[in-house]
Amino acid sequence: MKNTETIIDRNDLFDYLNSFLFSSNTEIEMAICDYIEEQEGELYWSDCWLATELANEFINKKELYDIEYL
Fold first, then answer.
1. Residues with Cβ within 8 Å of residue 20, at least 6 apart in sequence
2. Which range of residues forms the domain containing residue 46?
């Protein structure tokens, strides 16, 4: 049976994102899409929509801890 839901481990994702220096929100979203594709083996439009939400969450978390992300 094919998995129809993308499951993201946010801690693992945010650790992955912390290894990069980003210059825009779009770059964060693209990195998240790459991460999802690596984890799931494929990428859907809904995953890209999810990437926007996860990017915002990542940015908010960084701001909460006063860590520069851009």
1. 27, 31
2. 10-64
pLDDT tens-place string over residues 5-61: 667 889 999 999 999 999 999 999 999 999 999 998 988 888 888 999 999 999 998
Is 3 within a domain? Answer: no
- Give the total number of structural domains in the chain: 1
CA distance 51 to 26: 10
pLDDT category of residue 1 using cuts at 50, 70 and 90: very low
Q: Is residue 2 part of a domain?
A: no
CB of 17 within 8 A of CB of 30? no
How far apart (Å, rounded) are the C-alpha atoms in residues 69 and 43?
Answer: 25
